[in-house]
Design brief:
Helix content is 41%, strand content 21%. The chain has 462 residues and is an alpha/beta fold. It has 3 domains: 76 residues, no CATH class; 54 residues, no CATH class; 268 residues, pyruvate-formate lyase- activating enzyme, CATH 3.80.30.20. Helix 4 crosses helix 5. It is globular. The structure holds S-adenosylmethionine (SAM) and iron/sulfur cluster.
Length: 462
């Protein structure tokens, strides 16, 4: 890893990981002022590389952000030279390239019509990805800078079984059986306290999202009890029912009764062999059955799928996509597998290869667009294979506002439940404060009052 005196060590390390394994080769990196000019200096395999750039001007925050940008760009240029390959997202190591582009526009550094060039020049992002970002900016509707407009999130970190690749904190239902009822009691307590806060501060909830985990793993009576509390009058109300084997007509009746408008049914792949391999308990037929039930009830449906699952070649992925396009759900979310290097699954992945993976992702994105789907949000995760991305698509006008607000961080989110992260956006000051709840169900049950107090404090001076 980098031994460094640079203040951007973490980001430089993140970039290095994209090129090498954990135990890397970078010796030293530092900045040096010489004759009024700033130099970024790296030593690698005994060779020294240095880049000179103009000393940035502007506010302290702005200068820091530019220096970070140039440090990353310098390292990236050096790595490209040494390794003879580029990365789709260039020197950009963050998770929100669309927010980066929006900030560029809002700060006057670029205009909307020149955003592609801005991303290519300042971050060496590939033309294909820069064009994708600019399309997403055009498709994003409903971003309103009004700090009284918020979204409401409920986290149910419980699932029927643990998927092999899952990086989220979620519990197998059989392991937390005795905690489910007390957990719902505490979530309800938190919701009630937040309803009072929302009323007192004259906040307006515009979307509700119940995610996880797999909220639909709850029994119909438990879902009924929980949703009964979510009485905000909204046009968009999503409940994740990701695992199709948890979906029954009775549960969908409960969702309908409480005004849910959108659900997620996530195939991930339409290969039964892969589903078994990754520890999901459903088969592709379960997706078809659950989807038919959902359509009958008139829910909008999102479907997630993942590229890079173990054992899958390009042909399997093409088949999954073509089945998805035949089903034509309102939203499709395309994920690139995110895996820690060194894990058993990571080794397995090599079957597909990074180069091919990028091609497959690009092909999926263009096939979706050719079929009439439009990209509307994008984010990257750490350890995503090939440094690639996740992209949400919609058809017609059915995009999910909650996804835009949360990914772009343009609206506050009050979030309840274990591991839920509340965010308060201060639009005028251009900053965000976060208040995470404790991660585990057991701790949450013990400390729910503290979670409530912390959030009341976060919103005390609205
Ligand atoms: C938080 S999960 C919740 C959805 C639901 N529990 C399910 O699995 O169907 C949201 C989505 O993230 C994606 N996901 C989860 N783990 C991932 C990983 N390691 N790499 C890429 N995508 C992942 C899956 O497509 C999943 O549907
Ligand atoms: S169902 Fe979703 S949240 Fe649950 S373990 Fe699988 S990927 Fe993770």
């Amino acid at each position: 890893m980098i031994k460094t005196n640079s203040e951007f060590k973490k980001e430089l390390d993140d970039l290095l990981i994209m090129f090498y394994d954990q135990d890397s080769v970078m010796d030293i990196v530092h900045e040096e002022m010489r004759a009024g000019k700033l130099f970024e200096i790296f030593k690698c395999h005994g060779k020294t590389f240095e880049y000179e750039y103009n000393d940035p001007t502007g506010s302290e925050l702005r200068q820091k952000s530019l220096r970070k940008r140039y440090a990353l760009l310098s390292l990236y240029k050096m790595l490209v030279k040494m390794e003879g390959r580029t990365l789709p997202w260039g020197s950009f190591t963050g998770i929100r390239p669309t927010a980066l582009a929006r900030t560029g526009i809002e700060s006057g550094e670029t205009k909307e019509h020149t955003v592609t060039e801005f991303l290519e020049k300042e971050f060496m992002i590939s033309n294909e990805k820069a064009v994708l970002v600019s399309k997403i900016l055009k498709n994003q509707k409903g971003i309103i800078r009004n700090d009284h407009l918020i979204d409401f999130y409920v986290n149910i970190p419980i699932c029927p079984s643990r998927c092999l690749y899952c990086s989220f904190i979620s519990n197998e239902v059989k392991q937390v059986k005795n905690l489910v009822e007390p957990y719902i009691d505490c979530v309800i307590k938190e919701i009630r306290a937040m309803k009072k806060l929302i009323y007192d501060k004259a906040l307006i909830v515009r979307t509700i999202y119940v995610g996880g985990g797999t909220p639909s793993v709850l029994e119909p009576s438990q879902l009924d009890r929980l949703l009964d509390e979510l009485t905000f009058p909204v046009n968009e109300f999503t409940v994740e029912c990701g695992r199709p084997e948890t979906i029954t007509k009775e549960k969908l009746d409960v969702l309908e009764k409480h005004g849910v408008t959108r659900i997620c049914i996530n195939p991930q792949t339409f290969s039964d062999a892969t589903l078994k391999r990754i520890g999901r308990l459903h088969k592709k037929a379960d997706v078809f059955n659950a989807y038919a039930l959902a359509i009958e009830k008139g829910f909008k449906v999102n479907m997630d799928f993942i590229v890079g699952l173990p054992g899958e070649k390009a042909g399997t992925i093409t088949k999954t996509l073509s089945t998805l396009l035949d089903l034509a759900p309102n939203n499709i979310t395309l994920h690139t597998l995110s895996l820690k290097r060194g894990s058993a699954l990571f080794e397995n992945h090599e079957q597909l290869g990074f180069k091919n993976l990028n091609k497959v992702i690009s092909k999926c994105e263009s096939d979706l667009m050719n079929a009439g789907y439009k990209p509307y949000y994008l984010y990257r995760q750490k350890y995503q294979l090939g440094g690639l991305e996740n992209v949400g698509f919609f058809r017609d006008e059915d995009l999910c506002q909650f996804n835009i607000d949360s990914m772009e961080e343009t609206a506050s989110i009050i979030a309840v439940g274990a591991n839920a992260i509340t965010k308060r956006v201060f639009s005028i000051e251009n900053r965000i404060e976060r208040e995470p709840n404790v991660k585990f169900i057991k701790d949450y049950i013990e400390r729910v009052d503290e979670m409530i107090e912390r959030k009341i404090k976060l919103f005390e001076n609205v």
